[in-house]
């Protein structure tokens, strides 16, 4: 039996800065056949380990519809990430997973989708965004609303600018503050963008949100105003996870284990387990 705590050796193929403290990492198993056989769902996470520094959970930012690579968007905040930021391209790191439940794609196919992102929430929801775009004919109407504090802090800014030019989705971007006066789009809160959401069938819509804890209350209120059912309002919630497989108990909230039962939860779940957010 394979040891579930044993990380797989993977190669750091590419890395570059997205902001002053957030970096993009692209990794793949050393064996290319293994790389092409990787299976995961948008919303799942991996455990990245570095000898001498420990390990930590990170949401997968890539999409399974583009096999061969795993992509992560990581903020430098602690010992593991500080060590990871020192690693050069072509170096080896440990990765195990995927873990978690991911988004219920089988239920979301054929439905309208509304994704709302704030700040670092772009990291996990980029996976779902790209998956829907790569399988666009399998989904209905699609809205993507993204807010950041400033233009400089918007992750994947160039990529989202390009997506905004597509005619098969409604992509709206905003920043809270534009001190230089050079931002070409809306300036204000991400909830302002709900005025641009039209012609969605609420009973046929899945709404997804990820961002700073303070935004959930206000974004979910907008979802409910649209009439979207509570069980079709989804969020991906990351808490400190130590093992990824529900053995250590660090992510337990009552009977819920975030690493097993999450990190994707519905608003219905949150109503019954308020400590999730």
Describe the 3D structure.
With 277 residues, the chain is of the alpha/beta class. α4 links the parallel β7 and β8. It has two domains: 92 residues, Beta Barrel (Elongation Factor Tu (Ef-tu), domain 3); 132 residues, 3-Layer(aba) Sandwich (Rossmann fold). 22% of the residues lie in helices and 30% in strands.
CATH homologous superfamily name of the largest domain? Answer: Nucleotide-binding domain of ferredoxin-NADP reductase (FNR) module
CATH class of the largest domain: Alpha Beta
- Unreliable segments of 5+ consecutive residues: none
Shape: globular
Q: Count the strands?
A: 15
What is the terminal separation in angstroms? 36 Å
Mean of residue pLDDT values: 91
Q: How do the SSEs run, as a string of H and E?
A: EEHEEEHEHEHEHEEEHEEEHEH
Q: Please identify the structural class as seen in this structure.
A: alpha/beta
CATH architecture of the largest domain: 3-Layer(aba) Sandwich
- What is the helix tally? 8
Percent helix, as a range, is 10-25%
Q: How many domains comprise the coordinates?
A: 2
Main sheet summary: 7 strands, mixed
Radius of gyration: 18 Å
Task: Tell me what portion of residues adopts beta-strand conformation.
Answer: 25-35%
Query: What is CATH's topology name of the largest domain?
Result: Rossmann fold
Strands of the largest sheet, in order across it? 10-9-8-7-11-12-15
């Amino acid at each position: 039996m394979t040891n579930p705590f044993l990380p797989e050796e993977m190669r750091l193929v590419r890395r570059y800065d997205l902001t002053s403290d957030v970096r993009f990492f692209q990794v793949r198993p050393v064996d290319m056949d293994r790389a092409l056989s990787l299976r995961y769902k948008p919303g799942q996470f991996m455990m990245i380990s570095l000898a001498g520094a420990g390990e930590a959970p990170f949401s997968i930012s890539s999409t399974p519809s583009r096999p061969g690579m795993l992509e992560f968007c990581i903020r430098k905040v602690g010992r593991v990430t500080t060590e990871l930021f020192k690693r050069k391209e072509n170096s080896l790191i440990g990765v195990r997973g995927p873990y978690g439940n991911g988004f219920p794609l089988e239920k979301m196919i054929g439905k309208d989708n509304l994704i709302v992102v704030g700040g670092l929430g772009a990291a996990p929801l980029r996976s779902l965004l790209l998956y829907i775009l790569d399988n666009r004919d399998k989904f209905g109407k699609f809205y993507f609303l993204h807010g950041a504090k400033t233009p400089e802090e918007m992750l994947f800014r160039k990529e989202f600018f390009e997506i905004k030019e597509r005619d098969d989705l409604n992509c709206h971007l905003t920043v809270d503050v534009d001190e230089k006066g050079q931002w070409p789009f809306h300036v204000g809160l991400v909830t302002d963008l709900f005025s641009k959401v039209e012609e969605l069938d609420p009973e046929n819509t899945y709404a997804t949100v990820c961002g700073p804890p303070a935004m959930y209350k206000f974004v979910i209120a907008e979802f409910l105003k649209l009439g979207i059912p509570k069980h079709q309002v989804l969020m991906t919630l990351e808490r400190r996870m130590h093992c990824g497989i529900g053995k250590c108990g660090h992510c337990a909230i009552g009977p819920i284990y975030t690493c097993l039962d999450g990190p994707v939860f519905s608003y219905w779940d949150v109503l019954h387990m308020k400590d999730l957010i």
